[in-house]
Design a protein that fits this description.
Layout: E1 30-34, H1 43-53, E2 56-62, H2 64-69, H3 71-76, H4 79-82, H5 90-97, E3 99-103, E4 106-107, H6 128-131, H7 135-138, H8 142-158, H9 160-165, E5 173-174, E6 178-183
Parallel strand pairs: 1-2
Antiparallel strand pairs: 2-6, 3-6, 4-5
């Protein structure tokens, strides 16, 4: 779908998967992977491929431990955290890439639509259009999501969510687990 949206004169397109990139060694000066490694069937193989094809690697990902501690995951959809069970730690990814890791906190008005974006605006999660763009929700059985959203709605209406998370009202930025891994500079 994205390929069809390209305009005339766009650069060439190569289809492939992260675990077996169809290009020669050192084909690029740099590679960029944005919130994708959790979709790869073999994360280690995909990271090896990034190292093979470029000396500079930039990976925007998330720490599965911190991600699982977000209130939306921990309290309402813990099934999202189970997708990363046994897939390796952030530290292992950073070591494999030979990279540093930078915490990327989300501000109160962050609008990108990633899973943690609405950490201080819980009503947003009740909107199916908002959830549709979050792969964590998209990968779940719809009945699991529906049940979780009923619980969230109940907690918001009763004030239980506010009592539990009132401390977020004073927070300007929140660590939802997003990390930038940069190597080979």
């Amino acid at each position: 779908m994205m390929i069809a949206q390209r305009g005339p004169g766009s650069a060439a397109v190569v289809r492939g998967v992260a675990e077996a990139l169809p290009v020669p060694d050192r084909s690029f000066d740099a590679v960029l992977a944005v919130l994708t490694t959790h979709h790869w069937s073999d994360r280690a193989a995909g990271l090896d491929e990034l190292c093979r094809v470029a000396p500079v690697r930039v990976v925007l990902t998330f720490d599965p431990v911190v991600n699982a501690q977000q209130w939306i995951v921990h309290d309402y959809v813990p099934e999202i955290a189970s997708f990363d069970t046994g897939r390796g730690s952030l530290e292992a990814m950073a070591e494999q890439l030979g990279s540093s890791s930078t915490v990327l906190p989300l501000t109160r008005d962050f609008e990108d639509g990633v899973l943690g974006a609405f950490w201080c605006r819980p009503l947003a999660y009740l909107d199916p259009a908002v959830r549709r763009h979050m792969s964590g929700f998209a990968r779940l059985d719809p009945s699991v999501v529906d049940e979780a959203m009923v619980r969230l709605d109940d907690d918001l209406r009763s004030g239980a969510w506010d009592r539990r998370y009132r401390s977020l009202a004073d927070v300007e930025a929140y660590d939802a687990g997003y990390r930038l891994l940069v190597s080979g500079r």
